[in-house]
Amino acid sequence: MTVTRDDAASALHDIDRAERHSLTLFQYSAGSPYLLLWGPLWIVAGAIGAVSPENAGLGWAAVDAVGLAGTAGLVIAQSRRFRGKGDRTATWRFLGAVAVLAAFIAMTFAVFAPVSGVQIQTFIVLLVAAAYALVGCWFGLRFAVVGAVLAGLAVGAFHYAPAHMAYIVPCLGGGALIVAGLWMRWAR
After folding, report:
1. Is there a contact between 90 and 79 (Cβ–Cβ < 8 Å)?
2. Residue 61 falls within a domain, yes or no?
3. Contact 28/184 with Cβ under 8 angstroms?
């Protein structure tokens, strides 16, 4: 049997497409635990703020500490699992990204001085949404969809139900992260 140039090109194209699809599924699988971690934490922090508005900042700080520790643990575990025990690049990249985002948020608040919790919450949700959308540019459309849904929920709540943002955004946003984490986990 003779293989033509077109047959070979078609086979190589199919192999390339399968490889890209496999990589995307791997990235969804690797990203899913982060969404499944932060979704419930977002709901817990939102519940603390809704039940006790005067303790909202403390609730978010505690939840963020747990979330960042959990995220660092996931980064370390995945780094060991997927790259070998000697590679610490992913851990340093994660820590660098956290430092950059924390500095960006602090400087933005210092310059623009949001005056309400609704503005602060909306800004942070939009920043998280943008981060997911950017990740989607490199690692798969589902990440971008998560970003778009989060942004849409935040902007919709900001404009149509600002008095209820403390309840709406954590429930819908955290729920969206949980659903997205499961969606990515079960991607085929």
Report:
1. yes
2. yes
3. yes
